[in-house]
């Protein structure tokens, strides 16, 4: 009987360790599927919205893409910041040393603004964005870095993320 109790105790310990190791693999997948089925989405303030168009460019360092997102409007009445448009340039390693890109973010067919910045090779270098508005909806920016969620330029891995505030 003593031997049976010891065998039962060790078996329970091995089973507990197996559940502790392999249980999260099951539960993470279960909760991931549950969240996906619920229709929950991350707020566009954080993601930058949905991509509207992708422009393929060729530069001196190689080919890169300019992804222009749909404008994101402020939805919460007490939220800081206003409407903005996000532009992503990737890969940053293929971008020319100086970028001056006309951005058409609305379906009118006319560029809304010109984004200009220097793109140094060093990934920790400070980026500064200048925005020249071509539309009355766009706010002019000069030497912007990471001011807030609606006006910024940041390097994220091998991409450059730009957000330009709108009126």
Question: Strands, helices and their partners?
Answer:
Layout: H1 2-38, H2 44-47, E1 51-59, E2 62-69, E3 84-90, E4 98-103, E5 113-118, E6 129-133, E7 141-144, E8 146-148, E9 151-156, E10 159-165
Antiparallel strand pairs: 1-2, 2-3, 3-10, 4-5, 5-6, 6-7, 8-9, 9-10
Structural overview:
The protein has 167 residues and is of the alpha+beta class. Helix content is 25%, strand content 37%.
Strand content: 35-45%
Order of helices and strands: HHEEEEEEEEEE
Which ranges are low-confidence, i.e. pLDDT below 50, for 5 or more consecutive residues? none
Main pleated-sheet profile = 6 strands, antiparallel
Span between N and C termini? 81 Å
Average pLDDT taken over every residue: 88
Shape: elongated
Helix content: 10-25%
Trace the largest sheet across and list its strands: 1-2-3-10-9-8
Features:
10 strands; 4-stranded antiparallel beta sheet; alpha+beta; 2 domains
In short:
The protein has helices at residues 2-38, 44-47, and strands spanning 51-59, 62-69, 84-90, 98-103, 113-118, 129-133, 141-144, 146-148, 151-156, 159-165. By secondary structure, it is of the alpha+beta class.
């Amino acid at each position: 009987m003593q031997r049976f109790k010891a065998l039962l105790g060790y078996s329970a310990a091995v089973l507990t360790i197996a559940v502790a190791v392999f249980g999260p693999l099951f539960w993470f997948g279960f909760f991931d599927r549950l969240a996906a089925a619920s229709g929950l989405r991350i707020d566009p303030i954080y993601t930058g919205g949905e991509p509207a168009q992708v422009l393929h460019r060729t530069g001196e360092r190689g080919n890169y893409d300019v992804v222009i997102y749909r404008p994101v409007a402020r939805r919460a009445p007490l939220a800081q910041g206003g409407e903005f448009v996000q532009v992503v340039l990737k890969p940053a390693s293929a971008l020319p040393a100086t970028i001056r890109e006309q951005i058409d973010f609305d379906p009118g067919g006319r560029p809304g603004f010109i984004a200009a910045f220097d793109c140094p090779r060093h990934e920790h270098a400070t980026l500064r964005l200048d925005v020249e508005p071509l539309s009355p909806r766009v706010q002019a920016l000069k030497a912007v870095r990471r001011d807030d969620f609606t006006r910024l330029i940041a390097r994220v891995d091998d991409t450059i993320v730009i957000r330009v505030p709108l009126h």
